[in-house]
């Protein structure tokens, strides 16, 4: 790992990531490292207190299932992981809800900001906007297209 | 520490600071030395790449992820030459007469705000986009509204040469957005106003500002500062604070010379918002075209506004409730997603305020009132109706459990989208219209008068959204400019009288 915050809890973080975004499970070592780098970079800009809280929360997630499943989180099946995280997400304790929300956000940050993932989703922004997307003829057709109040009967 | 002397120092370069700089610029020809200090960097045109992570990190405080004290809401505000005007979508509305009357600030009337707003609408080239440039997301919104009998209105926008990149919130790559970085600040600089970037205001002292100029790191965007890295002490006859609701309030609170001013940080409002998405059968255009061209104004009667919007993949993913396969399936439908932003028109209440921590960093305390929750849930229901009327197959509603509602359940929206599912910490709530903290009003009950003069501190003015005594119920930037114009006029009048 290129960073240090997640090093002591990397197995748990990977297991959480694979549960939050199932597609992450198919990421090879190099692409997973890129995800981690984005997350570590985001954490580096945060306070030491927040980084400590994150590690503690991940350790809680890792060991909590021992009570019920006699297994650590990173050894659970996907359905069991999903169930546990869902309970955290909807917990009556705000500290657990927001802890999961923050962790989920980090996973989504690492995964969905990647160029290859955004491209695969079909997200195709272009600085040239309409010039990159439509021909002149298509622009003329769009200008004549009815919508809204004209379309009400459709 | 290096020392400097100026006549007027303006802290912040957004809608407020840029306006004050431009309006005071004629004084330079009369010998006044005027300085603008901006914490962020000045980006060059080629640096607006439109890449989500890269531009969020470069243009927003905390990369766009500043959280309230209890972690239940994300506040997004700009940090760049041009402030938040670099990253807003440019919707330009005049504050409603009703709101200005309700503010009840002596010396402030709507006619004056309206006149000044129109001045800046002309400067900023505000106009309606022609229909040919509208994308499917906006068209479907209008169609859906028409079908359920709701009035959708078109936003006037401050654009010149918009190509429809859809990248407004990451900084326009075509120099088309007429923020202060394109209009007011260049005007001010041409007249001789100096601008120093990468200058973080550490504290105020008696007629002075102490700033720390940060060096440009190798991987930073933007030009280096005009001043050397390190701490600088700047003396001034007058200091004008334009750092935004959070920046200005925190600066006053952490500076010993101003920390005793009563009411600073109070009356914070922010228009809490949800991003809602709906999936259509076929691809629709939303990653091209101006993202925010239409709205529904239900502020007065229902406490909310709906706006069309487009958000980038990570921002969209973060705003969807849930995780796992269902979340991924909706993200894979990205080209088929229609989006609506719902904003609650919150009211200033005791407890919702800006404070500071032991290190002087801002801390925002915010609790969602029953009225806000009610408004957001109502807004979500109306949005769901609009989505389905526009032909959506399914709608993602944060206040529904489960959040995904299929078309065949559209008749049950009032039963499915309910207040008990509005669970802060589980659902994503964000805000970008940050207001209050240095409210205008009478001495004793407010921080400033209607010209931004800080009560009891003759060398200090405020000219940003922290002046608002309550939420403005529309995008605040034009009202900020109008108020900043008033502040600048007051400064010119006072300057002339004292010369």
Note down, in words, how this protein is organized.
The complex is a heterodimer of chains A (154) and B (499). With 154 residues, chain A is an all-alpha fold. Chain A has one domain (7-148). Chain A contains 9 helices and no strands. In chain A, helix 1 (10-20) crosses helix 5 and helix 2 crosses helix 6 (94-112). The termini of chain A are far apart. Chain B has 13 helices and 23 strands. In chain B, the strands form 6 sheets. In chain B, strands 1, 2, 8, 9, 10, 11 and 23 form a 7-stranded mixed β-sheet that branches. Chain B has a 7-stranded antiparallel β-sheet with strand order 6-14-15-16-13-19-20. In chain B, strands 3-4-21 form a 3-stranded mixed β-sheet, with no helix packed on it. Chain B folds into 2 domains: 1-125 and 165-271 and 435-499, FAD/NAD(P)-binding domain, CATH 3.50.50; 128-159 and 273-345 and 369-423, Cholesterol Oxidase, domain 2 (2-Layer Sandwich), CATH 3.30.410. The two termini of chain B are 31 Å apart. Chain B has helices at residues 15-24, 52-59, 97-103, 110-123, 136-148, 184-190, 244-254, 299-302, 313-319, 325-332, 370-389, 413-416, 477-498; strands spanning 2-11, 34-37, 66-67, 74-75, 126-127, 153-154, 157-158, 194-196, 199-205, 208-213, 230-241, 266-269, 273-279, 294-298, 304-308, 337-344, 353-356, 362-365, 394-396, 404-406, 430-431, 435-437, 460-462. In chain B, 27% of the residues lie in helices and 21% in strands. The chains are: A mainly alpha (154), B alpha+beta (499). Chains A and B meet through helix 5, helix 6, helix 7, helix 8 and helix 9 of A and helix 5, helix 9 and helix 10 of B.
Count of individual beta strands of chain B: 23
CA(first)-CA(last) distance of chain A: 56 Å
Q: What is the terminal-to-terminal distance of chain B?
A: 31 Å
CATH superfamily of the largest domain in chain B: FAD/NAD(P)-binding domain
Helical stretch tally of chain A = 9
Radius of gyration of chain B: 22 Å
Structural class of chain A, by secondary structure, is: mainly alpha
Low-confidence stretches of chain A: none
Task: Give the overall average pLDDT of chain A.
Answer: 90
Overall number of domains of chain B: 2
Oligomer: heterodimer
Largest interface (CB within 8 Å) is between: A-B, 50 and 57 residues
Helix content of chain A: 55-70%
Shape of chain B: globular
Under CATH at level 1, the class of the largest domain in chain B stands as: Alpha Beta
**Which of globular, elongated, flat, extended, rod-shaped describes the shape of chain A?**
elongated
How big a fraction of the residues of chain A is strand?
A: under 5%
- Beta strands of chain A, count: 0
- As residue ranges, the low-confidence spans of chain B are none
- Our count of helices of chain B gives 13
């Amino acid at each position: 790992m290129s960073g240090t915050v997640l090093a002591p809890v990397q197995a748990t973080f990977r297991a959480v990531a694979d549960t939050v975004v199932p597609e992450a499970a198919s990421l090879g070592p190099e692409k997973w490292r890129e995800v981690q780098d984005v997350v570590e970079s985001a954490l580096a800009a945060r306070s030491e207190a927040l980084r400590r809280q994150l590690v503690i929360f991940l350790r809680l997630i890792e060991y909590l299932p021992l009570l019920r499943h006699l297994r650590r989180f990173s050894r659970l099946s996907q359905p069991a992981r999903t169930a546990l995280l869902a309970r955290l997400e909807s917990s009556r304790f705000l500290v657990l809800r927001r802890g999961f929300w923050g962790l989920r956000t980090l996973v989504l940050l690492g995964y969905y900001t990647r160029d290859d993932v955004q491209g695969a989703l079909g997200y195709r922004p272009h600085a040239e906007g309409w010039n990159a997307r439509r021909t002149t003829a298509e622009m003329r057709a769009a200008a004549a297209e009815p919508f809204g109040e004209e379309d009400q009967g459709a | 520490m290096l020392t400097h002397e100026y006549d007027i120092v303006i802290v912040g370069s957004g809608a407020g600071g840029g306006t004050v700089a431009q309006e005071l610029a004629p004084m330079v020809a009369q010998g006044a030395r005027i300085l603008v200090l901006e914490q962020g960097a000045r980006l060059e045109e080629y640096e607006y790449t439109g890449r989500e992570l890269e531009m969020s990190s470069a243009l927003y405080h905390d990369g766009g992820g500043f959280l309230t004290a209890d972690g239940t809401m994300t506040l997004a505000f700009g940090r760049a030459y041009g402030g938040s005007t670099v990253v807003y979508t440019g919707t330009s509305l005049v504050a409603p007469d009703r709101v200005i009357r309700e503010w009840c600030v002596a010396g402030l009337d709507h006619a004056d705000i309206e006149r000044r707003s129109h001045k800046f609408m002309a400067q900023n080239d505000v106009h309606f986009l022609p229909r040919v440039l509208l994308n499917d997301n906006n068209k479907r919104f209008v169609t859906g509204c028409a079908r359920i009998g709701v009035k959708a209105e078109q936003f006037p926008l401050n654009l010149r040469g918009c190509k429809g990149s859809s990248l407004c919130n990451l900084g326009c790559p075509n120099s088309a957005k007429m923020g202060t970085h394109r209009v007011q600040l260049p005007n001010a600089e041409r007249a001789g106003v100096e601008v120093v970037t990468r200058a973080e205001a550490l504290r105020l002292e008696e007629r002075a500002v102490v700033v720390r100029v940060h060096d440009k790191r190798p991987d930073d965007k933007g030009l280096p500062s005009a001043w050397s890295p390190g701490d600088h002490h700047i003396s001034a006859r007058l200091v004008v604070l334009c750092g935004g609701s959070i920046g200005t309030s925190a600066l006053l609170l952490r500076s010993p010379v101003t920390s005793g001013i009563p009411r600073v940080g109070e009356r914070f409002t922010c228009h809490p918002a949800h991003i809602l998405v709906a999936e259509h059968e076929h691809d629709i255009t939303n990653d091209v075209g101006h993202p925010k061209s239409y709205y529904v104004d239900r502020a007065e009667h229902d406490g909310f506004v709906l706006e069309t919007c487009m958000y980038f993949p990570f921002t969209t993913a973060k705003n969807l409730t849930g995780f796992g396969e269902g979340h991924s399936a909706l993200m894979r439908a990205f080209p088929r997603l229609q989006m609506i932003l719902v904003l609650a028109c919150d009211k200033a209440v005791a407890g919702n305020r800006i404070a500071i921590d032991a290190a002087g960093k801002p801390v925002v305390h915010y609790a969602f009132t029953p009225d806000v929750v009610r408004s957001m849930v109502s807004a979500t229901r109306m949005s769901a109706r609009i989505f389905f009327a526009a032909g959506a197959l399914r709608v993602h509603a944060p206040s529904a459990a489960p959040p995904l509602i299929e078309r065949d359940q559209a008749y049950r929206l009032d039963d499915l989208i309910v207040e008990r599912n509005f669970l802060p910490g589980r659902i994503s709530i964000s805000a970008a219209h940050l207001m209050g903290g240095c409210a205008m009003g009478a001495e004793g009950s407010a921080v400033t008068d209607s010209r931004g003069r800080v009560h009891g501190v003759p060398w200090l003015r405020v000219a940003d959204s922290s002046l608002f005594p309550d939420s403005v119920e529309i995008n605040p930037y034009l009202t900020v400019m109008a108020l900043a114009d008033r502040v600048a006029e007051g400064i010119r009048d006072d300057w002339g009288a004292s010369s």
